[in-house]
Amino acid sequence: MTSTQTVSTQGAHSLNAPDITVSARALFGIDTDLEVPAFSTGSAYVPDIDPSYKFDPDTTLAILAGFAFNRRVMIQGYHGTGKSTHIEQVAARLNWPCIRVNLDSHISRIDLIGKDAIVLQDGKQVTAFREGILPWALQSPVAIVFDEYDAGRPDVMFVIQRVLEVEGKLTLLDQNKVIRPHPFFRLFATANTIGLGDTTGLYHGTQQINQGQMDRWSIVATLNYLSAETETSIVLAKLPDYQTEAGKKTVEAMVALADLTRAALSPGIFPPSCRRAR
């Protein structure tokens, strides 16, 4: 004989809500008077701070709007531009728990929602519902980031659709339960395309996203490759040993080479062949 119950999970933060406000100008060095809620202490789910991280002003404002005003924010851009890291570093400075979920082709509805499992409790077999990542995050002051949003399976994407509304409740059909979102639950996503699929030939495997779902994202910001000067300053901040005149020239040459490589891989342009260099 088995009984059924729901297994509770560890809380994301010792505080149930942000207890301080911080200045975006002072914390991120951007030109705005925006005040953002934050936690005075961290938790195991708060990302580590990268002290040398350089923030893109427009992208930072979009992410901060998501945290401050409970907006659903998608960051779109080329690969390797730091979309997910940008969200993580903003969350780290706000002490806001942040969980990243990679929407690869193996992520299923069960992974997001949860499933029944038989466990031993007090020597008895108990059928317990183990919540997936989405119900757990929805009930907590957590920022969940769906990476590779445009690579998710269509049947899985519709699980997320209702949650995209600010007051969107999640219905667990197996449990006859409706979950109301925590007031400080936040939702972000990153993608290489904007829901139209791979139109460039660079991102094979991405899906077209239902435009009704895309319309539910409050803010869609673009983060592409930074200017050469900005990239040089980022590399120098990461590598203090190169903060010399000779080191700076080396880094500038590296960034110039990276720019040439990206230009060669742009849509409609063939990469240079090594044979042509002979």
Overview of the structural elements:
By secondary structure, the protein is α/β, with parallel strands linked by helices. It has two domains: 3-222, Rossmann fold (3-Layer(aba) Sandwich); 228-277, no CATH class. The chain contains nine helices and twelve strands. The protein has helices at 24-28, 57-69, 83-94, 109-113, 133-138, 154-161, 211-214, 228-238, 245-264, and strands at residues 3-7, 20-23, 35-38, 73-76, 98-102, 114-121, 124-131, 143-147, 170-172, 177-179, 186-191, 219-222. The strands form four sheets. A five-stranded parallel beta sheet has the order 5-8-11-4-12. Strand 9 (170-172) and strand 10 form a beta hairpin. Helix 8 packs across helix 9.
In short:
The protein has 278 residues and is of the alpha/beta class.
Features:
278 residues; alpha/beta; Rossmann fold; 3-stranded mixed beta sheet; globular
By DSSP, the count of extended strands is 12
Strand content: 15-25%
N/C terminus separation: 76 Å
CATH topology of the largest domain: Rossmann fold
Examine the secondary-structure arrangement and name the CATH architecture of the largest domain: 3-Layer(aba) Sandwich
Range of helix content: 25-40%
- Report mean pLDDT, rounded to a whole number: 84
Indicate how many domains the architecture comprises. Answer: 2
Q: For the report, how would you describe the main beta sheet?
A: 5 strands, parallel
Strand order of the largest sheet: 5-8-11-4-12
CATH class of the largest domain: Alpha Beta
The class by helix and strand makeup works out as alpha/beta
Q: Spans of 5+ residues with little confidence (pLDDT < 50)?
A: 1-8, 270-278
Order of helices and strands: EEHEHEHEHEEHEHEEEHEHH
Give the helix tally: 9
Fourth-tier CATH superfamily name of the largest domain = P-loop containing nucleotide triphosphate hydrolases
Shape descriptor = globular
Gyration radius, in Å? 22 Å
